[in-house]
Amino acid sequence: MSFPVGRVLRSAAGRTRTARLLGTLPTPAASTIPSRFRAPVTAGAAGFHTVPAARRQDGSNNNRTSAQTTTENKPTDEELASAAGSFARTDDSITVEYPPEEQLPSSEPVAGTDRAGAHVFPTLATFSLQGKVGVVTGGARGLGLVMGQGMVISGADLAIVDLNKEEATRQAQNIVDTFRNDHPDKKPPKVTAHYADVSDPASVEACIAEIVAEHGRIDNLVTSAGFTENFEAVAYPIDRMRKLWGVNVDGTYLFATSVARHLMGRNAKGSMVFIGSMSGAIVNVPQPQAPYNAAKAAVRHLASSLSVEWAGAGIRVNCISPGYMLTALTQKILDDKPDLKRQWTSLIPQGRMGAPEDLMGPVTFLLSDASSYVTGADLRVDGGYTVT
Ligand SMILES: NC(=O)c1ccc[n+]([C@@H]2O[C@H](COP(=O)([O-])OP(=O)(O)OC[C@H]3O[C@@H](n4cnc5c(N)ncnc54)[C@H](O)[C@@H]3O)[C@@H](O)[C@H]2O)c1
Predict the structure, then answer these.
(1) Secondary structure E strands in 166-242
(2) Is Acetylation among the key words of this record (predicted)?
């Protein structure tokens, strides 16, 4: 096995980072870095120590490229100064407006028993959602669709809630068809589709009433409706920021409180999972997205706060914070800025973006009795991004 030859920079503050910026990633020309970001001091003055590059076992080092640094071939102070901080900062030139619905492709449920985890191997009974009724907001596409499918495969009936009811209806049928195909010997689940704008209280109340009328009750909730946009903070259109917070934060709050009222009214236990983001704990680079990051931090802390408030009622509330997952949302950003994928994956210890089905297990765990003593937690599903 060979490892990429890198160099480790240890900052004065003690944070260690592989010097991917000087290795696999191109070092930006000083002219591409806004003048106010150019480092005023040289690396030496800023207190960086260099550690010799890793060597192959045979002593050779032929993985190196000319851009990679060796102890014999040190970067000049000027090169270091031009790169300093550049990959740890946001780039004001990146602006991505969330596109109109019709410009986003629909997604498909996960097919095949190997990927979707069919009922083949024995597992703990407590992981089952058999007999539960789950609701997933934003379930017509992307992460919500696949998490909903994971709930169904784990035994739950499902209500898909989305702004796009037509797509939700199509996907409800798709999930049932895929289940029938993968499990011809099993009773197919009941999967229904419902309209709601999660940011609108009246719409949320009407939707919950409709789901209860069709399914009889609700046991589990996953709040996946949400979106991101990229604008530098000083130019973020206020109406778009309010909409972003309305869907991500108000939408989570409104759905959760409405389902909690329903559970309390029945004196029933329940489990909820809010979909936050690693952006609620770290600041992504280089795309600027301060309001989204703040919104996801709010979602995470809302989960903790409600978990305490509702613990006595037997309602658990946890958060899943995904890292970079490949969905229509992120694909749109990558279509606009293809170079970002290389930069993003270079920062993920597991070396790849997540697939939506990477969330099937975590969401099933948190909704099921397998996690009955877990509440108020934030489960990061990010390939290790936030650990480095
Ligand atoms: N994709 C990622 O890399 C990633 C990473 C971390 C967190 N997340 C979060 O995961 C969630 C799902 O993201 P995704 O990538 O699947 O997005 P997506 O755009 O593919 O799907 C979002 C769904 O939510 C629906 N929706 C949007 N606004 C709504 C509203 N007001 N009411 C009801 N439904 C609405 C959309 O119609 C769509 O079906 C979001 O909360 C997002 O912030 C995504």
Answers:
(1) 191-195, 220-223
(2) no
Could you confirm whether 98 is annotated as catalytic? no
Tokens of 111: 């097919």
CA dist 31 and 201 (Å) reads: 49
- How far is it, in rounded angstroms, from Cα 129 to Cα 363? 11
- The angle subtended at Cα 183 by Cα 178 and Cα 188, nearest 5°, is 70
User: What residues does CATH 3.40.50.720 cover in the chain?
Assistant: 103-387
Q: Taking Cα atoms as reference points, which of 4, 5, 10 lies closest to residue 50?
A: 10
Pocket of ligand 1 (CB under 6 A): 137-138, 140-144, 162-164, 196-199, 224-228, 247, 251, 275, 277, 322, 324-325, 327-330
Give the confidence band of 206 by pLDDT, cuts at 50, 70, 90. Answer: very high
Q: Which letter does DSSP use for residue 248 in this model?
A: I
* Domain covering 103-387: architecture: 3-Layer(aba) Sandwich (3.40)
Least confident of 115-124, 203-212, 341-350, 365-374: 115-124
Average pLDDT of the chain? Answer: 83
Say what percent of the chain tops pLDDT 70: 79
pLDDT of residue 80: 79
Q: Which residue, judged by its Cα, is nearest atom 41 of ligand 1?
A: 226
